[in-house]
Amino acid sequence: KLIPVLITNAHEDWVLPIYGDGMNVREWIFADEHSRAVLTALERGVPGEVYNIGSGHEQTNLEVVREILRLMGKPESLIKFVKDRPGHDRRYSIDCSKIRREWNWSPEIDFASGLAFTIEWYHAHADWVREIKDASYLSYYDRMYTRRDETLAEL
Question: Are strands 25-27 and 58-60 parallel, antiparallel or unpaired?
């Protein structure tokens, strides 16, 4: 959910809430690439086997938010650090070597290009985004980001 929140908030010049210090590491993959890997698993996979889908591309949440702001031409002053969730994992990582080895699969679209495509998609569908950010969404957003017990100082 991080990337959609960041893009849609930046589009409206709203603050971009980042949990904790923003140094949580995640492996990122463009949605179309993930779908392509799932299709490959359906076509070439063995029933009952496990296939971890990944890109091998890891970045911190802070690196991702800074790249989104750069691509959108927005200032880093939109970043707001908020109290982290209890028990929030510092790093998510998977071993996707099986699909690389068995199928010679790897992403065709790198993270930076996929991120640019994603930003453009949200820009082209701004009316849809406004419709889904209804009262229930705004209530959830307020609970998760706006009224956290504590706001951390900017790094």
Answer: antiparallel
DSSP 86: T
Segment 14-18 shows an average pLDDT of: 93
β 79-82/16-19 pair status: parallel
Q: Give Cα separations from 5 to 21, 28, 91 (angstroms).
A: 17, 15, 20
Q: Please state, in angstroms and as integers, the Cα–Cα distance from residue 120 to each residue in 8, 45, 46, 68, 116, following that order.
A: 11, 33, 36, 11, 6
Q: Tell me how far apart the alpha carbons of residues 155 and 80 are, in angstroms, rounded to a whole number.
A: 10
Average pLDDT over residues 133-139: 71
Instruction: List, in order, residues 6 or more apart from 131 with CB less than 8 Å away.
Output: none
Give, in order, the Cα–Cα distances in Å from 36 to each of 25, 55, 85, 101, 105: 24, 12, 32, 16, 10
Q: How many residues does the chain have?
A: 155
Task: State how far the alpha carbon of 22 is from the alpha carbons of 47, 86, 142, in Å.
Answer: 38, 15, 19
pTM > 0.90: no
Quote the CA–CA distance of 89 and 1 in Å, as a whole number: 15
